[in-house]
Amino acid sequence: MEKELKDVIQALERIKGFKFIDASFKGDWIHFRMDSKANLNFLTKQLKELKEEHSLDLVVLGNKNDPKETTYQLVLKSSDKVSALESLAEKLQKKPRAEKKPTHKFQELGIPDLSLVTMRQLANELKQRSNLTFALVWIEDHEIDNIAIEGAGNPTQIIGLLSRGTHLAIEWADKNIKFFKPDGDEL
Asked: Where do the domains of the chain lie?
């Protein structure tokens, strides 16, 4: 089990911002510090995917007086720790996405011109955000067969979002669109 524990620690050390502090030789826990919030989110996501199968938890050990001193402890509660460590090491071999830095300097250039951003690029950017449910619907060239939809989040919330959006559009149309009979009288 010591080999599997070392494999996990080596995989964790490849993550930018990871600083190893201590570990249990029984494979019960790994104590570390993480400087990169994006990479901590990556690690948390990997652990969530293995949590049910291998009983993994991430415990936050913080200092109320100094948030920079926050450390984390990866706790393995599984009865088969070897399998859990092997799965975790394999899962951590995936590369975390590099933190994106803004390409525009808003102070110098002002707000970027969004006319150059495609709907697909906008949807892809929104999908990278956490805790965001969204739905985008668009049509090109007024062709009924050319309607596209992109979304992310809980499917039930997306359907609710689309339904609420439709309701708001109907209310707006009732107030702002004037309908006329063929003889010219307003309805």
From this structure: 2-91, 112-176
Q: What is the pLDDT of residues 50-61, one digit of tens each?
A: 777 778 888 888
Burial 140-168 (b: 16+ CB within 10 A, else e): eeeeeeeeeebbbbeeeebeebeeeeeee
Contacts of 8 (CB under 8 A, 6+ apart): 30, 85, 88, 89, 92
Angle at 108 between CA 107 and CA 110, to 5 degrees: 70
- In angstroms, the Cα distances linking 172 to 117, 169, 176 are 27, 5, 6
Question: Around Cβ 176, how many Cβ atoms within 10 Å?
Answer: 7
Over residues 28-47, the pLDDT tens digits come to 788 888 887 888 888 888 88
- For residues 34 and 73, is the Cβ–Cβ distance under 8 A? no
Return the CATH number of 2-91, one of 3.30.70, 3.90.1150, 2.60.40, 3.40.720: 3.90.1150
Cβ(133)–Cβ(152) below 8 Å:
yes
